[in-house]
Amino acid sequence: MSNAWKLSGIAVAVLLSSAEVPLLARGSGATEPTGALYGTVETDGGRKYTGLLRWDDEEAYWDDLFNGAKTKLPYIDRLPESERSHRGISVLGLRIDYDWNEQDEGRQFIARFGDIQEIRPRSGEKVDVVMKGGTTYLLDDGSNDIGATIVIEDAEDGRVEIPWKKIERIDFAAAPAAASPEARRLSGDVTTEDGVFHGFVQWDSQECLSTDRLDGYSEDGKISVPMGGIRSIEKESRKRSRLELKDGRTLSVHGTNDVDSSIRGILVEDERFGRVKVSWDAFQKVDFGVGSVTGRGYADYKPATPLRGTVTDRDGRSFKGRIVFDLDESESWEILNGDRNGVEYSIPFRMVRSIAPHDDETSDVTLKSGLELRLGESQDVTERNAGVLVLPEGGTEQYVPWERVRRIDFD
Q1: Are residues 254 and 327 in the same domain?
Q2: Which of left, alpha, beta for 104 (phi over 0: left; psi -120 to 50: alpha)?
Q3: Closest Cα to residue 233, out of 224, 225, 243, 223?
Q4: pLDDT on residue 166
Q5: Burial class (CB in 10 A: 0-12, 13-18, 19+), 177
Q6: Residue 62, Cα to own-chain centre: how many angstroms?
Q7: Which of 19, 123, 310, 324 has its CA 20 to 30 A from that of 352?
């Protein structure tokens, strides 16, 4: 496979037709007036606040990702002891062996807010996350999503900021028609060395609203520009960017992680892939659009189903049943991670048709849309994968080490 995306005839038709649709008019499909986070926060004092939600000054929509570290891995004991104690990676053709410990390796919990029903903080950095399908996960820190201050726009109390340690529980719900955010969600076309990504944009993994601000230094001093006032941002070098404002002015800015290589990545919610994170090395330019679409509503995220499919090994044997991928992911809401050309992909398994290891460092991933990607770097798609467990109906479970996997086809 070449570095370019391989597209089936259907995928080509879809992409060509979408190019004729006005920016922000695509992919709404929402059954609610807004795709913004909404719910009820109950404090340890028994008070409840209901309204639009935001995680500090970052996540604000149902397709944003909630991150943490899983504390329980119920299937990891299927990994042979020899594999746990001695694993290796290849670097520039040289194999480097190392002692492996699952607690040291860690496993990330990554879920869209729209797939979550309830969050219940515990003591310290621990938290219970209840999915729409009913499964509960105990998490322990792992990101700044746990421990964040939750901002609520309550209809009666106005804007309320609640520290994490004061929260008893957060119940998510669909937003009523009256609960519509005043700020516009950022969206646009992000041009990279690997192609153009279209969708909702979260700049520096943070700014996602038109009222959020981009900070930097121009030749005249420090600036702080509302994101809604920017027409485009173009990389000039590792240390500098060029802003084109909607009033026609252009500025060359530097000096902050909003405009140089210390940026935390540019997140794009592209309906073809899920969420991508563009590194500064891969980034070239973003052109922002206009509109009022805010993404799918809470009701559009249906309860997850178990992963099912067929695993074919290198001897040609096939095993069909429920699948536990990487001895970790087992439901359709979970995320497949992989990188290519400076872009990190976070693809919901419900979008994945098949995965076929290509070599020790990459795998070929085919999406249900027909798009194909060769991804690397992540444990999910390299030899660091812990293997696949197949749980057939009424049969004996079958563990297939990653090096023995030829192909996985999902139902």
Answers
A1: no
A2: alpha
A3: 243
A4: 96
A5: exposed
A6: 11
A7: 19
* CA pair distance 165, 148, nearest whole angstrom: 9
The parent domain of residue 383 ranges over: 304-410
Lookup: tokens for 313? 């090994």
Distance CA 31, CA 298 (A): 8
262 lies in the same domain as 281:
yes
Domain count, the chain: 2
Same domain, 288 and 319: no
Instruction: Note whether residue 217 is domain-resident.
Output: yes
H or E segment and range at residue 375: strand 372-376
Looking at the structure, tell me whether residues 206 and 266 fall in a common domain.
yes
pLDDT score, position 98: 38
Q: Are residues 308 and 294 in the same domain?
A: no
For residue 302, give both structure tokens.
């249906």
Distance of alpha carbon 43 from its chain centroid, rounded?
28
Q: Is the pLDDT of residue 20 over 50?
A: no
Closest CA to 270 of 202, 211, 209, 360: 202
| H or E element that contains 14 | helix 9-18
In-domain check, residue 336: yes
- The reply to whether 189 and 294 lie within a common domain is yes
As a whole number, mean pLDDT of residues 298-326 equals 96
Check whether 7 has a pLDDT greater than 70. Answer: no
Among 65, 67, 50, 62, which Cα is nearest to 297's? 62
The answer to whether residue 253 is domain-embedded is: yes
Q: What is the pTM of this model?
A: 0.85
Cα gap 200→295, rounded to integer Å: 8
- Is residue 291 domain-shared with residue 193, that is, in the same domain? yes
Domain end call among 298, 333, 366 = 298
Residue with tokens 């003591």: 123
Residue with tokens 């901002």: 151
In this structure, are 193 and 290 located in the same domain?
Answer: yes
Q: Which residues neighbour 61 within 8 Å (Cβ) at sequence distance 6 or greater?
A: 35, 36, 37, 113, 185, 200, 208, 294, 295
pLDDT score, position 291? 67
Kindly state the tokens that stand for 136: 């509960």
pLDDT in tens, 95-121: 444 344 544 445 889 999 999 999 999
